[in-house]
User: Fold NAD-dependent epimerase/dehydratase family protein from Sediminibacterium roseum.
Amino acid sequence: MKKVLVCGAGGFIGGHLVKKLKKEGCWVRGVDLKENEFSISPADEFIIGDLTNQQTVREVLDMPFDEVYQLAADMGGAGYIFTGENDANVMHNSATINLNIIHQAHKAGAKKIFYSSSACVYPSFNQENPDSPLCTEDSAYPAMPDSDYGWEKLFSERLYLAFSRNYNMTVRIARFHNIFGPEGTWNSGKEKAPAAICRKIAEAPDGGYIEVWGDGKQTRSFLYIDECLEGVQRLMESDFAGPVNIGSEEMVSLNQLAEMIMKIANKPLTIKNIPVSHIGVRGRNSDNNLINEKLGWAPNAPLVQGLKKTYQWIREQVLCEMPAE
Assistant:
């Protein structure tokens, strides 16, 4: 039986990954600062622990796991990442986690390790045009990420690749592009655009309005969680180390995203664009040429398909929190 460690198992992607691995018959140990708040983890073991602590990491990585998935990070949506107020914690905590995990994975003889990087590593100067951003994997250098979160991700990519070169470790790296779906953060201040907009629409009265940050013309692509995990699995089963984009090429503006969700909800609301400084780059979209070339695969499910499932789940959460009349 394959033995697997999932770091960040209490989070959105990690929680879904544990479920997938268990369905495939793996023995899974999960670790996180907290358990998933939306569902009970099916992990064989779930350890509550701080991965910035070296002793915790030694206890968690106490055997030569067949696979280690490193998803743990200090992160959130634009309101958390781009204000600058959390940069020190983001860089210190995430870098410390990665330094601890790759070091102990090497000592424990881990057979294969996956690191979840981010599209935030791409240079801001290649993402100024919302209609034609450049996010090919080889465009990450010369480096100029738009946030310290992106700088830490880029550093950690190099960290994992250095251990791969120097210690003959099998490493796989993916750059995620805005993964979304049910059982993700939706009202904590760390939620990302799809969840935030779903919540606002679910809460808004008929005929009302929702706020969208910025002018709403900034563009992004969003990938549903099931396709993300399919991409990760294919990468892990391949002989390609990466980094490789795992994201959708269906680019939409934030106003268009809101309009799609309003149509799903059957709630014709008004969009009120709110000027804020922390909106990130003007345009970002996954380029899937490399994943097609190396893995013979790329995500292709339409955005609306995942939004329907996500909106329904968030609407149920909103209804549960509404006070009884």
